[in-house]
UniProtKB/TrEMBL annotation:
This is Alanine--glyoxylate aminotransferase 2, mitochondrial. GO terms for biological process: glycine biosynthetic process, by transamination of glyoxylate; glyoxylate catabolic process; L-alanine catabolic process, by transamination; positive regulation of nitric oxide biosynthetic process. Multifunctional aminotransferase with a broad substrate specificity. Catalyzes the conversion of glyoxylate to glycine using alanine as the amino donor. Catalyzes metabolism of not L- but the D-isomer of D-beta-aminoisobutyric acid to generate 2-methyl-3-oxopropanoate and alanine. Catalyzes the transfer of the amino group from beta-alanine to pyruvate to yield L-alanine and 3-oxopropanoate. Can metabolize NG-monomethyl-L-arginine (NMMA), asymmetric NG,NG-dimethyl-L-arginine (ADMA) and symmetric NG,N'G-dimethyl-L-arginine (SDMA). It is an enzyme of class 2 (transferase). The gene is AGXT2.
């Protein structure tokens, strides 16, 4: 433990010297000292089961011995080269990463964060298409840099300053909140309780959303567009899933207008969705550009953009793309070890098996409690939407969600939050979690719901 700074001093320093918008999840902020696989330890030695993995980032477990060993080895050899010099680890990593993507996605650009990756993807799309306009969903989160703020359509991140020129939001085909439901239409072991008139093999909701997409194309953007960004499942917006087949049709419409299709795999990539390594594969589409960050480095700051040789050429013939830290040997050593661990420990398969197990258990809680409106997701990317009641779908008031969240923490379980009103609990642990840990987490969550119902009844 770090004895040097008392909890009260940390709070004082935070107030004086750190960004005032860095809000803590809990009234008494959690001060962490150590992590071990899926466990975190605070300054008093209390143990928490980490079911949000540093916001969907620690993909293979905190301080994984193989990843640590790779970092330590490299630490003593060479930290930094900058992209003007070559290093075998960089080249090995680019080869390994590109082997995980289908043809023709074979050219890797290494950067340092998800926002940077999406900034670069925007530039690529514009350089390649010779157009400006880019479409993204309402509710999407693609970064907080001045460029990506245009793509991010979550109100609290927007600034009343000019930004995002050429970026147009379009309606999110959200099965749970949208006007057309879609009870059979999402790719999840758990279907929504929202009724719709679709048959299992015919999604009318999807057709309605495609009409909305066409409407954006004909009313809000130029005749030729640069591209379309989509997360395969929206993370920050509360694990929002689209009707099956939507992305496939949307990609075709974008390409008809000369645009390129970008899959933001920052949260969904690296096996988290279980059935596939990449989220776009679950939609049966082939993007032109894929961006990735977070889980790529298990918490080490690194990110990547992978694209086709043609698009890479369109960018590099127009500019000298340079990035001092992107793809430094430390990051590549870590990234390579992460890929090896995912494979050696069958973590994609574990995401599928343990994620499905958890979803089915949580669906029982949905049926048991009136305030659990929806349980959704795929693999180890799960959302639990809290509502006033199942009929209205109105969000459970924030103070009530806060209390349940806090109660879970007090019982040793850390989960995330998302959605426009912060009404959705998000679960995205390291991909190595086990079924007994899921049993513990679901039991804690159930106890928090029971406590809540008892408080309400008083
Ligand atoms: N894309 C998605 C889908 C994200 O969830 C995030 C981060 N929440 C980003 C991009 C931006 O990543 P970073 O914070 O590393 O800039």
């Amino acid at each position: 433990r770090y004895q040097s700074l008392a909890y009260s001093r940390v709070l004082e320093i935070h107030k004086q010297h750190l960004s005032p918008v860095h809000t803590a999840y809990f009234p008494e902020p959690l001060l962490l000292h150590q992590g071990h696989v899926e466990w975190l330890f605070d300054h008093e030695g209390n143990r928490y089961l980490d079911f949000f993995s540093g916001i969907v980032t620690v993909s293979v477990g905190h301080c994984h011995p193989k990843v640590n060993a790779a970092a330590q080895r490299q630490l003593g050899r060479l930290w930094h080269t900058s992209s003007v010099f070559f290093h075998p680890l960089i080249h090995e990593y680019a080869e390994k990463l590109s082997a995980l993507l289908p043809e023709p996605l074979k050219v890797v650009f290494l950067v340092n964060s998800g926002s940077e990756a999406n900034d670069l993807a925007m530039l690529m799309a514009r350089a390649h298409s010779n157009s400006t306009d880019i479409i993204s969903f309402r509710g999407a989160y693609h970064g907080c840099s001045p460029y990506t703020l245009g793509l991010t359509n979550v109100g609290i991140y927007k600034m009343d300053l000019p930004h995002g020129m050429g970026c147009q939001p379009t309606m999110c085909p959200d099965i749970f909140h949208g006007p057309w439901g879609g009870s059979h239409c999402r790719d999840s072991p758990v279907q929504t309780i929202r009724k719709c008139s679709c048959a299992p093999d015919c999604c009318q909701a999807k057709d309605q959303y495609i009409e909305q997409f066409k409407d954006t194309l004909s009313t809000s953007v130029a005749k030729s567009i640069a591209g379309f960004f989509a997360e395969p499942i929206q993370g920050v917006n509360g694990v929002v899933q689209y009707p099956k087949g939507f992305l496939k049709e949307a990609f075709e419409l974008v390409r008809e207008r000369g645009g390129v299709c970008i899959a933001d795999e920052v949260q969904t990539g690296f096996g988290r969705l279980g059935s596939h390594f990449w989220g776009f594969q679950t939609h049966d589409v082939l993007p032109d550009i894929v961006t990735m960050a977070k889980g790529i480095g298990n918490g080490f700051p690194m990110a990547a953009v992978v694209t086709t040789p043609d698009i890479a050429k369109s960018l590099t013939k127009r500019m000298l793309h340079f990035n001092t830290f992107g793809g430094n040997p430390m990051a590549c050593a870590v990234g390579s070890a992460v890929l090896e661990v995912i494979k050696e420990e069958n973590l994609q398969e574990n995401s599928q098996e343990v994620g499905t197990y958890m979803l089915l258990k949580l669906a029982k809680l949905r049926d048991e409690f009136e305030i659990v409106g929806d349980v959704r997701g795929k693999g180890l990317m799960i959302g639990i939407e809290m509502v006033k009641d199942k009929e209205s779908h109105q969000p459970l008031p924030r103070e009530e969600v806060n209390q349940i969240h806090h109660d879970c923490k007090c019982m040793g379980l850390l989960i995330g939050r998302g959605g426009l009103f912060s009404q959705t609990f998000r679960i995205a642990p390291s991909m190595c979690i086990t079924k007994p840990e899921v049993d513990f987490a679901v039991e804690v969550f159930r106890s928090a719901l029971i406590q809540h119902m008892e408080r309400r009844a008083k």
